[in-house]
Amino acid sequence: MPLDSKMNRVFKVVGTRPPRPDGVDKVTGRAMYGADATAPGMLVGRILRSPHAHAKILSIDTSAAEALKGVKAVVTSADFGVPDNLSIRDVQDNCMARGKALYHGHAVAAVAASSAAIASQALKLIKVTYEVLPHVTDVDEAMRIGAPVVQSGRVLENVAAGLSENVTSQCEFGHGDLEAGFAKADKIIERSFTTAATHQGYIEPHACLASMSSDGRGDLWCCTQGQFFVRSLCAEIMGMDASQLRVTASEIGGGFGGKTTVFIEPVALALSRKSGRPVKIVMTRDEVFKATGPTVSSSTDVKIGMTKDGRITAAEATLRYQGGAFPCETVSMGAQSAFACYDLDAVKTLGWNVLTNRPKEAAYRAPGAPMAIYAVESVVDELCQELGLDPLDVRLKNAASKGTKSSYGPTFDDIGLRATLEAAKAHPHYTAPLGPNQGRGLSCGFWFNFGGNTCVSLNINTDGTVGITEGNPDIGGSRAAISQMAAEELGIPYEKIRTIIADTNSLGYNDVTDGSRVTFAVGLATIEAARNAIKVMCGRVAKIWGIDENAVIWEDGCAKPAGGNAGSFDPMSIEEIAAISANTGGPIAGHHEVNADGAGVSFGVHIADVEVDPETGATKILRYTVFQDAGKAVHPDYVEGQMQGGAVQGIGWALNEEYIYGKDGLLQNAGFLDYRVPVASDLPDIDTVILEIPNPGHPYGVRGVGETPIVPPLATLSNAVARAIGVRIFNLPMSPPKLLKAIGQKG
Amino acid sequence: MKNFHISTTVNGDQTEFVCAPDETLLDVLRNRLGLTGAKEGCGTGDCGACSVTLNGRLVCSCLVLGAEVEGAEIGTVEGLATGDHLHPLQRNFIDHAALQCGICTPGILVAAKALLEKNASPTDEEIRYWLAGNLCRCTGYDKIIKAVQIAAAEMRGA
Q: Which residues 52-71 in chain B show a CB within 8 A of chain A?
């Protein structure tokens, strides 16, 4: 659905900052999240998890647990089938280990009991006999021939020979003559980097309430980014028709990609089916860390050649990502995004996915991109230092723009990278003075963005107000943005609209809330649904006036005659049209169903000033500014919120956060005390500059904004630290002991 | 295990409940009293999503036992508004987009209210250190700090 041709459109509601419709519920404690629902006769579900990193399950004896008074059901993998569809089987096996426990914390059995105390006691009575196997948690070790094999038979045909069976897939992107490109360079730098696995760290642990009845119908309430996808997965795992499983998304306490799949939902459904009672499962934080998706950890080599005036002549990267015990394709997105910011004649990326004895990776905000772009932007910065060039000038010189053949194939349309870089260059932050032990870093960032399957119903109520039914959980203000776009299109006040999130029975299939897609795709479908409703209303009015439907236009919430030739009629307001709808043909509604494309890629630039304490190695962020192209910012507060929140997640990734595994393959820091996400006192204000380069694929020019801002902070901070302490760190996070050691070695 | 019978005051209302010896105040509030505004983000006192006041003192209700609150006065997010009149912190959190997913919001509001009762004119730094025990993963804290400042100014003016 292309950008409206009237480009100079003056928006009335879009671009304003009205209060969000779910605000009061969320500040009064009334909003219902995953763990807040109850049902009559509800049981408590608990899950038993593997104490080993890798072990064959020889037997599970549940008899003592089943005999405990108050225990109503115990399930293991034996209570599930073996799905033919491999990807469904992986999801199920991740929810409940079949034959082998593949990582520390992998579920092996579950109970439902009349109280939490009895459920916990029952878990202790389940006897699992394990044969402990050798394990591997490091990506580079797991690639070597002879490494413990996590799963056999999962290697795709195109994977090069000479690697461990843990290397399941391989991808390559790029174009041009690398050899010729490097030959033209005045300076070539080649470096290797690693990043640690980090967790999405949503504050709400996974929670669900499942209720299966003996006639095979089921209801599921859960915190998820996508109730329709949850239904698809659970219905297939449970052997149910989709129509018989209704999934309702609760309010969601953060997701960031981590709630785009299922972990406990099929288990709760199986326990409910077996016990005949509703079953609620709420994860502990320990379980969230051990058994839900962190992001991949990575090991990456980057080689870039540059002329002495700052033109990149050739660029190459090899990426090795481990995504835990099941195959994943995240490395492909890393390999595609690594050099997406640049207009290059010769570029190549090669990526490998590697299995390890870690929890299955789940999507995390721009999955795969931050670690790839961190490595690339670090090498670009080092080249700038070596050649004595301004890092923003070098980015401007090489920036991708409209017409650039991207490093991953497509040719870019209107994009905002150059405007974003120019805004950064003109900003006072970039030239502010720095003190001792301080450094300034910057980095570009990129994300593809996504559109996807979307379905919206827009109902004109009989009093002329509007109800919108959409299918994507509201994680950060999307109900407000959707209502704003409907208000804009219908020409009525924002307050007259109420947007709700439907359960899976109330609307057609909607893709998960991911890919920064909701404001773009649901917005697009809402605008089109509003246009369809307007068409119906104009038709009704045309009948009343006895003129042709095309002679009626819609303006400011009213039907009006198109011009003098159409006749002279007083405008009819939406209220008047709605009030008599029963006499003009019945209820009025607009719908739109689409698999939206044209999402429009997104770019951002971050600048940070840091000070590193030479005594402790601690990094303090003094100033931070985010520049990003939003296409059109529908609700600028929530656009800024995405930019700030994404930046701070990236800051945590750069400085503090990491999954730490012992030699025993066990996770050592499964809690917020030892896995340290940024707290308020760690941070300065996060300043934001929104640019608006309209996306040609959306009627208002909207681009997704949610994911891009987590991409630049890794290199931004690494580059700032390198300039502050005079030595470059190649491994994230840059924790104080690591920096202290580097400062010491430098002398 | 013998249960305890406890009499207490929650948001000004006389309340009685029965709880097991190992049941936390958070469990009691959520599961026995139907006050699900306080959230369990970690259960170990690291995230602050379960923040409530106990005799005026800010605590993590996941670290307090239900059996400990005999005769105490407890304040939760459900007690912040007066009738349909929102507390200035609540209103400013909505007006200034200081929440995204909203799961940490009840705890942060209770904590911010406790701060402003002690210190009506906090600096940004003081707000940031006071709220360091309340994790927010969505906002990057920027708009939270600003909303608390605006609410504080409004309350001083009132």
A: none
